[in-house]
Design brief:
mainly alpha; flat; Sec-independent protein translocase protein TatC; protein transport; Sec-indep_translocase_CS
Length: 252
């Protein structure tokens, strides 16, 4: 490898390390704030269904600490997400034009908004559905549910977080379209394969019955179709910008 390319690689790795360190510092700071806010959030969750319909138990002295850690992590992830995305943008922006830098930077607030919408949908729609299904199974088997608080929240986060991340799909597609890595034609071509992947994802997130799979899969299908429309919108915008530049160049 030439010395110049080696130096460039070292500089990129150094920048990547710096940005990762920044993200870790912010995550630690926001987790500290998350610990302070965890009790209020926990009390709110305890008053909403399905948590309000059950008695919470701890089965280990560490359960309460695990609970605080999980709540603090969710708060930290939500608050830190814009900063993480900004650091990713800062790392890749050198390979973008000024117009692309400006355009992709504007995606960050919408990314956070999609994550929050996914969080709300997952917690208030999908998670209660999953709890109702598992409770029904327990009742059919004549079992008395006794939930450990740490296990309850682990189960909840295993459902809520993946679905919240899935709601980022439209913004990711727009970003990749802006970078010319995706386009509507490609998304249409691989639609059937994408749907298979989304069905598998829905089956992993939701309870093992057809109705639950459909209730999760249908929003994921809608997100994919929205992504196709947004990709076409971004591509049309790029074509208009290119035509305008060609006109201005020809006039000069």
């Amino acid at each position: 490898m030439p010395i110049k390319e080696m130096m460039s690689l070292v500089e990129h790795l150094s920048e990547l390390r710096t940005r990762i360190i920044r993200v870790l510092i912010v995550i630690v700071l926001t987790m500290i704030a998350g610990f302070l806010a965890a009790k209020k959030l926990l009390l709110y969750l305890k008053q909403t269904s399905p948590a309000s319909d059950m008695t919470w138990h701890v089965f280990s002295p560490m359960d309460s600490i695990r609970l605080y850690m999980m709540i603090a992590f969710v708060i930290s992830l939500t608050v830190t997400l814009p900063f993480i995305l900004y650091q990713i943008w800062g790392f890749v922006k050198q390979g973008l034009t000024k117009e692309e830098q400006s355009a992709t930077l504007r995606y960050i607030p919408y990314t956070v908004l999609c994550f929050i919408i996914g969080l709300i949908f997952a917690y208030f729609v999908v998670f209660p559905m999953c709890m109702a299904f598992t409770t029904q199974i327990s009742d059919n088997l004549g079992l008395t549910p006794t939930y450990g608080v740490a296990q309850y929240f682990s189960f909840m986060l295993n459902i809520v977080l993946p679905l919240s991340i899935a709601f980022e799909l439209p913004i990711v597609v727009m970003f990749l379209t802006r970078l010319k890595m995706l386009n509507p034609k490609l998304l249409n071509k691989f639609r059937r394969y994408a749907y298979i992947v989304l069905v598998i994802a829905a089956s992993l997130i939701s309870p093992p019955d057809l109705i639950s799979h459909l209730m999760v899969a249908i929003p994921l299908f809608a997100l994919y179709e929205i992504s196709v429309v947004l990709s076409r919108f971004v591509l049309n915008g790029q074509m208009k910008e290119l035509s305008k530049l060609n006109v201005e160049y020809g006039a000069s």
